[in-house]
Amino acid sequence: MQRHSLAKSVKLALTLGAVSTTLLGFQVAAQEEGAVVEKISVTGSRIKRTDMETAQPVLLITAEDMSRTGLTSIGEIMKEIATNGASLGLQTNNGNTAGNMTVDLRDCGSNRTLVLVNGRRWVTELSGEVDLTTIPLAAIEQVEVLKDGASSIYGTDAICGVVNISTKKDFQGAELSAYVGEYDEGDGRKESYSFSVGTSNDKGSVLFAANYTKQEQVMGADREISSVPIFGLPANVSAAGGRASPTTPYGQFKATVGDVTGSYTLTPGKTGCIPGQECTSDRVADFHIYDANTDGYNFAPVNYLLQPQESRSLYAQGHYELADNVRATAEAVYVNRTSEAQLAAQPLGGLAISADHVYNPFDQDIIGGSFRPIVAPRAFAADSTTWRFGAALEGEFELASREFHWDVGYGFAENKYVQLKNGFFNKTNFANALGASFIDVNGVARCGTADDVVAGCVPFNVFGGPDGVTAEMLDYVTVAPRNLAQSKMHNYTANIGTELFELPAGPVAAVVGYEYRRESGFTNPDPLTVAGQVLGDNAATPTQGGFSLEEFYGEMVIPVLADQPFAESLELSLSTRYSDYSNFGDTTNSSYKLSYRPIEELLIRASYGEGFRAPSIQELYQGQNDSRPSATDPCSIASVPYTQNADVRSRCASAGVATDFQQKDPQFRAKIGGNPELGPEEATTTVLGFVYSPHFVENMGISVDWYNIEVENFIGTRTAQYIANACYVTGIQSYCDQIQRDFSGSLNGNPGEISELLSLTQNFVGGLEREGVDINVDYRFSTEVGDFRVNWDTAIMLYMGDVGQPNRGDVNTDGDISEGNLVGKLAPGQSGGGSRNKTKSNLSLSWKYDDWSASVSAQYVSSLTENCANIVTASTRLGMPELADLCSDKGHTQDNFAFKPGTTEVVVTKDELAPENKLGSVVYFDMQVGWASPWDSQFTLGVRNLFDKEPPYAYSAFANTYDPSYRLPGRYAYVSMTQRF
User: Fold this and answer.
1) pLDDT digit string, tens, across residues 616-650
2) For residue 711, what are the β-bridge partners?
3) Where in the chain are the domains?
4) Which region ranges are annotated with the description Disordered (predicted)?
């Protein structure tokens, strides 16, 4: 076995070391006769051992593996491992205005994956997620991904896996690196530069690393697939089935002209009202009745497809041997990251325009008007600063003829976040600018009347189209909200371990430990946002809170058999953790692991573990914030429930909704917020697998692991669609009480629209379940023409859905109708990605010969299906039946399930039309070539997406026609150079 420089470390705070190499790098090393084999710490355990393979599957990603990806951030690298689900990244624009990058093992949710750095907890966002942009790649030596629940070892959040990022150790010399890459469209340029310097001797070591990375943007307009809301449909369809916005730069104004009442919009190409001139009724001829099939606004081109970002980081670490049996370690990290998200200009709805407004040609009061000032797109500039400091003492001592290993550690982490928003408007000033106004004697437009002028106010022209808005108008109404957030963590740990006694099969080893942690944080939205004075923005109230906890834990390894016939080894591992939280109480979680080696070349492993996740600060204490989820109003005459169910029509009528009501806004106005009464999630994880290293094939390793994860008491919120359906379709009054409607038309000129829907965080009795299989084959061999390595890493998801694996149509433990197994189905409208692929697989072939190296890799993601009823609906409304052929199976039918109105009895509608579209499987090929020069330089040239594979069309995806779980369209080439000194 291999030696390891941290062999004498036995602690949670610095759990690093060699790991089971069964998944990304399967390393087999012969032990020389008579060599001293040091015990090591493995990820997922605090007990030192000589065997790198344990009862838990671990994926090892080395620095060399990371280099072969051609990626420059740990967030990008984690996004492409086979076990990662849909997670936030820079391709998430609308739902990621903070510019974060996360990892989501098993597609359980990013806050159910624990991220460690050098075995220590990293600072989390208030949501409980770790932003991977705060971890500098230049300092990373390797990444270990524990694909098993580990709450008994690490505590909360380790439900669906653990990512342990190890930084460089014993670095000697200096290294300067430069990287430049760009898409073949000439955009998305990325530059990265790093410098590392370090020294080490018998007493200790010091390392300093600095890194700068700049990512430039890619716009939606720069790719055909993302240049329109739905590729294949006309770009301006806002009617049911389309996705263009009904809030346009030409406006909508409900008015009566002659005897025709309707929602009027300026005809493109017509002048409308001219700034600085009184607009008279003869300009009404420039307007026409809004047509949802042709007059919608194509918002897609001005959105970022890839966010721009810059990051700067400094990392320093050192360790020193204070005595023969005492060592000190310390590390410090500083990361500053700036990024920007950009969305189409703010859609302004619910506008009240005075009949006496200088630019109002209709000469009547207008309520519920809408307008989009496209000269000012929305921008979200984020500035995030992270500090991290950690220090520890570790050592050994002898007592009663036993050697004890101990450590004590302290860690502090802080993240500060500032967001500056542009393209937003002051509600009060905008109301003034749309009130009565006039042209004064100097020919200047003024707000108010000649006898009562509103000082400083500039009348705003919403009747002149894109060219009708001047800089002076914008200056008066524009605001730049500034939001602040901060999270802090203090963490204290202490561990001690020894070998308790000897059994025939070997020593029984144990470790016990203590941890105290305190977390706190807040968000401070801009005062105007809190007051609801930012027109069209999501109102928000502050979040503030924190908690502390004490934990006691222990772990024991019991060797049961060794060197017996059909039992080379049999080992049992037990661990337990007691956690006492200041906010919800205590919980105890244990795990049991068994590893059995019947013969030297085969390891059979099994584990069963209990887990938990404490509610995050955001889930507990978040203030009530507005959100705008996409949903269909069941009371709209265009909805299936309304057209097919008399009970739905009756409930809608009882709520005051008119029989001819048609939803105008495809997004509800929902209010979300925290719940201080939340309890923790509870989980169980079962893993069964084997590792096979056949003697007849040297340097080959095969691993197969089956897993099952169940999470109960799940923390989440009801979707807006669920609440609306529960009220009007199922008839549950408590959900109706959470819905308010606007019957005045002041919201958007369409009386009856849902104006508020309340959806607060809660615990659900049931939860989620994941079941799957991981497979890895790794083979290394040498020839006369070089050394080769083949690695095939595959994750197969067998089940994704409700706990207990109910069939579609069954009632789950929360009393809801289950959707069944969701594997292979695309979740619609997910800004962070909705892919639920059954299979994700990475295959790589690497080669080295003298100073040359090369690699070819393939990333495979399996096919998905999606509901594409929106396409069929649009084709019917447009009178273009050929558009329905965009769906691969427009005639698909399925049984649909619903509760009998007012009861919990499930009724089924047989063979109901449910058009489907298949997203075909995708394979991305990457290639890289490297050369090591005689002057100690490394040059690398690579291409990602070598064959320019396009993502499949996804007609239910968010904002455009491909899901952000797939790679950004285009071929990406890069070159890098590293000079060592």
Assistant:
1) 999 999 887 778 787 889 999 988 788 888 888 99
2) 683, 768
3) 220-305+344-376+427-477, 633-665+718-760, 824-981
4) 820-839
